[in-house]
Design goal:
494 residues; alpha/beta; Fumarate Reductase Iron-sulfur Protein, Chain B, domain 2; FAD/NAD(P)-binding domain; five-stranded parallel sheet
Length: 494
């Protein structure tokens, strides 16, 4: 362990953040890391628990506690405390191929499981993870490691999001020849275009992709498998195919006026913004511009928050974020004890920025859209909102959010961003390969497995488990690679 009394001697410290009114002037990351000396001191706080929940990755009441990748957190906390950053890196990469991604965008369920939560603040695990990988790149310890021997087996990975990259990384490491197909113009999938640049600067993705190329992985972009390339052609060419296309079918709203101009899915808004930023620093006119517009964001999750932060950086006139469910409590309730995921209200970076700009939290709870109203040009100009309340539905035998009679009101709206989640995979891919899907349109496999209903075709990530976290996608990719390797070789050492 680090220092037996470290958690008593040292308080938790976090990286500093640029002030909201300053950081909204740009799309860069806005955190200043702790010094190396301070990071080593933070490692001293780890108690190396007999039962380290931080690395457990278990589900309690439907929510994960601990790292889904089972990162060896106490080990690399101890290593950094003693100044052995090289050892920390090798213990970190043993379980996580992309800590530079999870260290930036993961909601750190590892810290939820930290025993220090019982009587204080958890270990600063997320920042420690990021500091280890960035130091490894800085010193050259993180470098391409192509396999010494090739197996002669060829694998196609369809999709280059976190699960696809994970599958590719592990199968290439095993010695298989891996080709990754991506329909967008840049590899990275969700990491590249689904997450704004201020949360994950795209140079870090490019750095990792370049390393993977040097290790022998081939990336083919601007190829939409199932449309540009036939599935049966790939099945003839490759010994195995892994579908990692994500849960890219957005959930829509079925309300009057939905077809009005100015209403977009959040994923299209965020993708267009990032692509325009990378191509022209937002000067090419191809972003969906929120400047001087009354913006309505529908959805209170991470994607909705990203829409808030992006809209503010574009200079929106006003902003409202709708959440159907009641507001979570400010403090952890008695029926939600450690090590469960804390069901409390979280104010994320986008909401912080909205508060700084507009003087109030943009979120309105227990509210939804009843109708969109368009002007004579067919452009959305108003939204009719309605309040909701919890009510028991006898027919459905469950509690639902129902409209409150007479609670309707109108607001001015010029731009609507729908961030209501995703329904599952897009059907043209699953139909092209003929794989069986479940009732949620995710690709069906036997429980705990990754093999689809079609021979030699596997699946991983959100396309398999449904919309989830980046860290779960990486974990699925790792486990799927093991199953693919076993099928190809008759045994596996992954």
């Amino acid at each position: 362990m680090g220092k037996p009394t470290g958690f008593l001697e040292f308080a938790r410290k976090e990286s500093s953040s640029e002030a909201p009114l300053e950081r909204i002037k740009h799309f860069r990351e806005f955190h200043t890391p702790l010094s190396e000396k301070e990071q080593e001191k933070q490692g001293a706080r780890c108690m190396n628990c007999g039962v380290p929940f931080c690395q457990s990755g278990i589900l309690i009441n439907g929510m994960v506690t601990g790292c889904p990748l089972n990162n060896l957190i106490p080990e690399w906390n101890d290593a950094t405390y003693h100044g052995n950053w090289e050892e920390a890196y090798y213990r970190l990469k043993k379980t996580n191929p992309f800590p530079e991604f999870t260290g930036r965008v993961c909601p750190h369920p590892c810290e939820v499981g930290c025993t220090c939560n019982l009587n204080g603040d958890p270990i600063n695990i997320k920042e420690k993870e990021l500091s280890i990988i960035e130091k490894a790149f800085e010193t050259g310890e993180a470098r391409p490691e192509p396999p010494a021997v090739r197996t002669g087996k060829k694998v196609a990975v369809i999709g280059s999001g976190p699960s696809g990259l994970s599958v590719a990384q592990y199968l290439n490491m095993r010695g298989h020849t891996v080709t990754v197909y991506e329909r967008a113009d840049r590899p990275g999938g969700l990491l590249m275009y689904g997450i704004p640049n201020m949360k994950l600067e795209k140079g870090y993705i490019d750095r990792r992709i370049e390393m993977m190329k040097q290790e022998g992985i081939v990336f083919k972009t601007n190829i939409n498998v199932g449309i540009d390339v036939k599935a049966n052609a790939l099945q003839k060419e490759y010994d195995a195919i892994v579908l990692c296309c994500g849960a890219s079918n957005p959930r829509d709203l079925s309300v009057k006026g939905r077809k009005s101009k100015g209403i977009y899915f959040a994923v299209d808004f965020l993708t267009a913004a990032t692509k325009s930023l990378l191509n022209s620093n937002l000067t090419d006119g191809k972003a969906i511009d929120a400047k001087n517009k009354n913006v309505l964001v529908i959805g209170g999750g991470d994607t909705g928050n990203d829409c808030v932060g992006t809209s503010i950086r574009m200079g929106c006139k006003s902003l409202l974020q709708l959440e159907m469910m009641p507001k979570m409590p400010e403090e952890r309730p008695a029926d939600n004890p450690w090590p469960q995921w804390p069901r409390v209200c979280k104010t994320d970076y986008g909401q912080e920025e909205a508060i700084a700009v507009f003087g109030k939290d943009p979120r309105v709870y227990q509210t939804t859209v009843k109708e969109f109203i368009a002007n004579e040009k067919g452009e959305v100009c108003k939204a009719k909102l309605v309040k909701l309340e919890s009510r028991y539905d006898k027919k459905a035998k469950r509690t639902v959010m129902a409209e409150v009679a007479g609670s309707e009101y109108e607001i001015p709206v010029d731009l609507v961003l729908i961030a209501a989640g995703f329904l599952g995979s897009q059907s043209y891919v699953t139909k092209a390969f003929g794989v069986k899907t479940n009732e949620r349109t995710n690709v069906f496999t036997e429980e705990g497995g990754y093999r689809t209903s079609v021979d030699k075709v596997f699946t991983a990530g959100d396309m398999h488990r449904g919309q989830s976290l980046v860290v779960w996608a990486i974990r699925e990719g790792r486990d799927c690679a093991r199953e693919v390797d076993l099928a190809l070789m008759g045994y596996t050492n992954l």
